[in-house]
Amino acid sequence: MLAFLIATMLSVGIVACGDDDNGNGSSNAVTGTWVGQGYGEDDDEKVTIVFRGDLTGTFTISYYDSYYGTETETATFTYTLNEDNTGVMLFKFDKGDSYSSKGSGSSSGSGSSLETFYFWFDGDKLCIDDGRLYGTPEWVLTRK
């Protein structure tokens, strides 16, 4: 009976310590893969964002360009997460990247630009905005 009790306690401990953040640091409310599309005039944009527990992530966007056809761009970012589960994402884009003009950014002087985006939750949806739409999200995403 004692062996059964110990085995049960160990199995509960192992399950409770499972890896839920893709092996990249600690988990938080935003950790994971989020997918969605643009809002309003950008509704043809398809977005995938992966937030890792180490406060880094990847952003992939696909959109249609009338000259080039479907374009896909990927960028990496770091993020901060506030206690109220709102946060800030800081992207570093190469200058000349056609998507670098979307966010609120500045030149870093090294051939790249830094772009800032903000995020918050609306129920189970993750909203992303560049700060120019005054509370209307640029993208609305759901957890994949």
Describe this structure in words.
Mean pLDDT is 75; it is low at 1-24 and 98-109. The longest helix is centred in the first third of the chain and has 15 residues, at 2-16. The protein has a single domain, classed as Lipocalin, CATH 2.40.128.50. It has one helix at 2-16; strands at 32-38, 46-51, 56-65, 69-81, 87-94, 104-107, 112-122, 125-129, 139-143. It is mostly beta strands and 144 residues long.
Number of domains in the coordinates?
1
Number of contiguous helices: 1
Helical percentage: 10-25%
From the spread of the alpha carbons, the general shape counts as: globular
Just name the CATH architecture.
Beta Barrel
Low-confidence stretches: 1-24, 98-109
> Whole-Å distance between the termini?
42 Å
- Summarize the helix and strand pattern as letters: HEEEEEEEEE
Which structural category fits the helices and strands? mainly beta
Arithmetic mean pLDDT: 75
Radius of gyration: 19 Å
Spatial sequence of strands, sheet with the most strands:
1-2-3-4-5-7-8-9
| Multimerization state | single chain
Keywords, please?
144 residues, 1 helix, 8-stranded antiparallel beta barrel, Lipocalin, mainly beta
Q: What's the arrangement of secondary structure elements?
A:
Layout: H1 2-16, E1 32-38, E2 46-51, E3 56-65, E4 69-81, E5 87-94, E6 104-107, E7 112-122, E8 125-129, E9 139-143
Antiparallel strand pairs: 1-2, 1-9, 2-3, 3-4, 4-5, 5-7, 6-7, 7-8, 8-9
